[in-house]
Design a protein that fits this description.
With 330 residues, the protein is an alpha/beta fold. It is built from 13 helices and nine strands. The strands form two sheets. Strands 3-2-1-4-5 form a five-stranded mixed β-sheet, with helices on both faces. α6 runs antiparallel to α10, α10 crosses α11 and α12 packs antiparallel against α13.
Length: 330
Amino acid sequence: MANPFAAAMRRVRLPAMTMFVGAIDCGGTKTQAALADRRGAVHFLPPQAGCNPQDGPAWQARLSALMAAILRAGPLQAAVLGMAGHGEVPEHDRDTAALAVSLLGPGVRILNDVELALRAAFGDGEGVLVLAGTGSMAMAQGPRGIARAGGWGDLIGDEGSANWIGARALRLAARALDGQGGDADFARALMARLGVAPADDPTGPLRFAMATDTPRAAIAQVAMQVDALALAGQPTAQAILARGARHLARTAQAAARGAGLAAPQPWSTAGSVMRSATLLAALTVEMTAAPRPAQMTALGGGLRLAAQQAGWALPPGWHARVAAATRAWA
């Protein structure tokens, strides 16, 4: 069967004889990449699935295909790779570095995807970035440098993340459906939204979790249904999101202390979970101040870092054009 991603990559063609910088944002659920030229024109590559090395062997093939497509698209002067899980498992870091250098050259810069989002949000300024996507983490930049908290994976951490929300929802649903108590109405409503029939089958949560070869990503998708139920006024769904917000606030405050930031700290958000109005409102209360809009998306911040790495003297308006293009793409 033809590979539609590879076919899309072959169609990416950029102006000849133009030098580019590149950025790749590898999250747990999706991977995005873009190229920018000296004028601030941005060219996006088709997104694909996540490539966190902690999730399975497919990450290498996905990242290799994306890097190869970048090289085919045009002459690359510098690149920045924001990698989920970077700095956590030395073996994965070595494998990532070996792959990136072999394809993009020794000048490629690799950093954790949350640090990429932090630098995109605040530039050289101080603040805390609270990320909640498939996983969760907070990273702060302050007088003591950069500090992180959380981000320890779904087995021992990632509280407040989409995976944590989804797993907690399925856990509560399973207990309610098999008679251990709890909110049976929530359980049936959740199972119905997930397409599990019959909705009152006690094995439903387990069958849903086992029906895919990527259970972590599938469980993370449950968070969207929890959010929809919360918006409809379902109390258990609202309680799950409120608890997630408390976890995220504690993580953010720990990172801020590590970086030497006094409360209340400037903070910003990243990740799919932050699209939940219910969770974001609860997190804002916990943080005692509203979040600041990020200066750039993570992908835009990666292009900015890559341009700095290339030593480009950027024309007026370059940052604004890149910021606007990557925000619209996101």
